[in-house]
Amino acid sequence: NGRSSYLVSAELTFNDVNRIGGKWRNLLQLGRIGGLRSEFHQPFGEGGAFYLQPMLQFRGESLPIWSGAVVQQAEYRLRRREFALEAGYSPVPHWRLGLAVFGGKDQVRRVIGDPQDFPSGSERYAGLRARATWDSLDSIDFPGRGVRANAELLAFQPWSGAALDGQVARISVDWARSWDRYHLLLGTRLASAFDDQASFQAQSFLGGFLNLSGYAERSVLAPQAALARAVLYRRTGDTSALFALPLYLGASLEAGNAWARRSQFGQGQPIFG
Question: 3-state secondary structure string, 171-193?
Fold first, then answer.
């Protein structure tokens, strides 16, 4: 359709910046998603089981608005400023429990669309985030074995002029198994805004690679969402070579949907990716 998008990113990580194993990670992005994210991970206690992690982020991204996930009606440019301070506990390498206080501001500027139907605006938010993660996957991109389960609860609070007040829960599970060069990945995603908030922070997104692959990235959004997927893939080429190219061939079956209200959850036909 005559459009193009690009994304260039660079990451700079400083390890052991102090005597107790502090790590400073910085991510710079340019293009459809642009901005800077900086976080400092400071372990402490016996074996570094506890940690503190402050984070600061400036982010801008293009956000298309679709009708039926097929016809684009508008496009926004989202600018986000956010900070967070998380304290956590990791009793074993696979487990992580965290509690964070966060706050920020989203500002959306309409780039394409009818100003009557798609106004520009801004939104302040603040609150607490609790999450628990079990991660034994052997690869973040193409896992061959292991499980990753993550549960997160956001509790928005009307602090310092923030307008949001409500809770959002998100759960995701991925399971991987391999037989020689063949790998199977099964996964599910569930998200629910308890009070059906229409705010941007309460939305969950579907669309994009292995997240309803047949639809544009983040083209399906609503406060309630569900997704299930099965992915089968095989690594090709000479895996024993010193400079082997990790090339994978495979196929996926994905099904999900999004709903504006909790009372509608599960209704209607699923969208297949």
Answer: EEEEEEEEECCEEEEEEEEEEEE
Residue 170 in tokens: 């998100």
Nearest to 250 by CA among 229, 267, 227, 269: 229
pLDDT at 1 over 60: no
pLDDT higher than 80, residue 245: no
Structure tokens at 92: 């074993």
Q: Closest Cα to residue 25, out of 45, 42, 41?
A: 41
- Model pTM score: 0.86
Q: Which residues have C-beta within 8 Å of that of residue 240, sequence separation ≥ 6?
A: none
Amino acid residing at 235: R
Region of residue 74 (left: phi > 0; alpha: psi -120 to 50; beta: else): beta
Whether 120 has a pLDDT exceeding 80, the answer reads yes
d(CA 263, CA 243): 53
pLDDT tens-digit series, residues 210-226: 898 888 777 888 899 99
Contact 234, 226 (CB under 8 A): no
